[in-house]
Amino acid sequence: MTFASTTSRADSADQTPADVSGRTPLLYLLGSSILWLVVSGLLTLITSIQLHTPQFLAECPVFSYGRTHAMAETSFIYGWLGNAGLGLAVWILARLSGEKLRGGNWVLVGGIFWNIAVLVAVCGLALGDLTSISMYQLPGYVQPLMIIAYGAIAVAGLLAWTGRRREMMYASQWYAIAALFLFPWLLSVAYIMLEVAPVRGVLQAIVGGWYAQGLWTLWIAPLALAAAYYVVPRLSGKVLPGYDTAALGFWTLLVVGGFTGARHLIGGPIPAWISSVAIVMTVTLTFHYIIVFLNLRPSLKGGSVSLSFVAIGLICYVAGGFVDALTSMRAYAAITQFTVYEEAQKQLALYGGASMMLFGALYFAVPRLKGSAWSSGALIKGQFVLSAVGILIVVLSLASAGLVQGNALANAKVNFSDISVQMKPYLLVASAGNLLLLTSSILLAVNFLKTTITCCCCTSDSTKKGAVTS
Amino acid sequence: MKNGSLFFLGLVAALGISWLGIVVASNAQLGSLAGYYDDTDSATYPARPSGLAAQGALVYKDLGCASCHTQQVRRPGFGSDQDRGWGERQSVARDYIYQKSVQLGESRLGQDLTNLAGRKPSAPDQEDLMGLLYHGHGAMPSYAFLFETHKIQGEPSADALKLTGRQRPHAGFEVIPTERAKELVSYLLSLNTTYDYPEARPVADVKGEGEK
Question: Which residue of A lies nearest to B59 if distances are taken between CA atoms?
């Protein structure tokens, strides 16, 4: 495997007006995303250690397992995936428009407030403002700010889309626009139905499940796919195979995806039809995963680090879809429900699928945005190997731990306190995997800093020169 | 895809359909669910939580207890929920109507707590729960920050934990629960689903009894 094309000078020469005009705001979003990735990696490692050593940091209320778990999730989803996905989506829309990025200042200001909101949210969680709804661990008071800040960032993407030169749209544009446009509505609905005028009883869990699934199928997955659908044809130099079917895959994800959330509530105190619908829809959704696999399979041949990242992302994304479909079935769900197996599925989708695709696009975007190559090829290689091995270890060990836990839980003869003892060896391995993931994100952060700090010097140099000549 | 406005309409529809299908439809079905009035008891079930228990629910939420404990006994056929003595019947939507913030939970690193105070043959009492919170047990860490060690002034406090061995505080000192610990335990002791609603008896179960 060669990493030549990502670190070569040719990348920085491939600059468009959109790159130059979007440099500061977009590099800001990407930089803050990497910072959040490191923070969430650290928090995830803490929760991972607490699973096998419960007393770890237990005397400190801020780091009690429930709070740390929520902080890790929020900083990962809204800090890392949000910043990186938004930055790349706006960048792709601006590039495909063939014009300069309009509204770059909106992106910068919106990005600053978005990060303030995520920081306030994480601090709020540390002090106990939890919602106890998975993927919706956002204290009520930050949500209006998040929606407004998000709007400011998304405006630039929408402007680039409406002002595009070609009327025809590419698949990456569909996915990017869908993600940019739908998230604020999704969060607003959840905010109204769970915070402003909370619905009663188990309806809260139903709305929460609908939001969490929407966050994945209408926001995170489209952001990642926008990046992948943009990078793969550019780097492989080929038209995507079966591109005609891409539209079908897109609409399947959007229309069907929203119905699949209640599979996590199977057997619970909700009307049975809701989880039955979710099972049917989860199986239907495999159609989307097949199409995405067909379209993006040129990435599997590799050729550059971006393509290798996308390839791993693609494999995890599609595998995640099929595992979801399998475990939504009642016979499997009865075992895996409420176990760390579900955590493994989440990691497979969010880290293995979405994050790997975003890493690929990030390595592609940064040299073009700043006009110079990555400062270290070795760090890129290191991050690739560590993150790929790390996520494999984490997913496999958590899945094994989950199966052990699920089978033990299902057997009433197994003493409850023995279950954690049986899971312990697997959980120790998962902690090692999480340590690798944290190390890999630190490598990325170092490389990004080394690359952009030199860049900041050259921009300040050039602005100085500009000031002198003008 | 060329038509921008049609594309946008599609996006709105995609979000709207799942919202109508899942959220609005279930709201129409369950939104107005009321308590169940029992003529023989002359009482309505579920009971509304007491003030102290409602405070405790907030402590439960803010410590993130729901990240390890569920509060839902699944239907028969789903795992060993009832065999483990977590509840004598499945949980139903009516159980939760008076809970301000529902804590169904999605992980069972810890036990299910739906019917903690109504477990048979023996449900934990206040002393058990205080001890559990202070010491931790198995995979559950100790929540010692919910307790304070005080110098005994005058009479020893009635709330003081009965500690033995190494856990025992120095002579003249005692470990007493904070307000938050008392609220939390009061909440945990309010968790019970002993009342049998008509909808909590699945058809399959009745058949099973007949066969036996």
Answer: A128
> Mean pLDDT across chain B, nearest whole number?
88
B77 and A CB contact within 8 Å: yes
Q: At what angle do helices A272-284 and A246-257 cross, to 10 degrees?
A: 170
Residues in chain A: 470
Neighboring chain A residues of B23 at a CB cutoff of 8 Å: 189, 193, 206-207, 210
Per-residue pLDDT of chain A (470 residues; tens, 9 = 90+): 444 444 455 666 688 888 988 999 999 999 999 999 999 999 999 999 999 999 999 999 999 999 999 999 999 999 999 999 999 999 999 999 988 999 999 999 999 999 999 999 999 999 999 998 999 999 999 999 999 999 999 999 999 998 888 878 899 999 999 999 999 999 999 999 999 999 999 999 999 999 999 999 999 999 999 999 999 999 998 899 999 999 999 999 999 999 998 888 998 999 999 999 999 999 999 999 999 999 999 999 988 999 999 999 999 999 999 999 999 999 999 999 999 999 999 999 999 999 999 999 999 999 999 998 999 999 999 999 999 999 999 999 999 999 999 999 999 999 999 999 999 999 999 999 999 999 999 999 999 999 998 644 554 444 433 333 22
To the nearest whole Å, the CA of A128 is away from the closest chain B CA by 4
Among the listed residues A82, A115, A171, the one whose alpha carbon sits nearest the alpha carbon of residue A354? A82
Burial class (CB in 10 A: 0-12, 13-18, 19+), A469: exposed
Residues of chain B contacting A59 with CB distance shorter than 8 Å: 142, 144-145
CA atoms within 13 A on the CB side of A362: 33
Distance CA A251, CA A247 (A): 6
* ipTM, interface predicted TM-score of the complex: 0.91
Assess whether the previous peptide bond of B121 is cis (omega < 30° from 0). yes
Least CB-CB distance to A202: which of B18, B104, B142?
B104
Angle of helix A377-410 versus helix A356-370 axis, rounded to 10: 160
- From A200, A340, A412, residue closest to B80, measured CB to CB: A412
Which residue, among A43, A68, A206, A211, would best test binding to B if mutated, counting the most B CBs under 10 Å from its CB?
Answer: A206
CA dist., res. B66 & res. A346, Å (int): 18
Q: Closest CB to B93: pick one of A59, A66, A269.
A: A269
Torsion of CA A317, A318, A319, A320, to 10 degrees: 50
pLDDT, tens digit (0-9, with 9 covering 90-100), for B70-83: 999 998 888 899 89
Distance from CA of A311 to the nearest CA of B (A): 27
Sequence-separated (6 or more) residues with CB below 8 Å from residue A377? A3, A6, A7
Residue B110: closest C-alpha in chain A? A416
- Rg of chain A over Cα atoms, rounded to whole angstroms, equals 22
The residue among A61, A63, A81 whose CA lies nearest residue A71 is A63
Contacts of B166 by beta carbon, 8 Å cutoff, 6+ apart: none
Closest CA to A398 of A346, A340, A328: A340
* Beta carbons of A265 and B80 less than 8 Å apart: no
Task: Using alpha carbons, select from A368, A401, A338, A412 the residue that is nearest to residue A51.
Answer: A401
Partner residue facing A410 (CB), from B79, B103, B138: B79
Which helix (DSSP H) or strand (DSSP E) does residue B37 occupy? Answer: strand B36-38
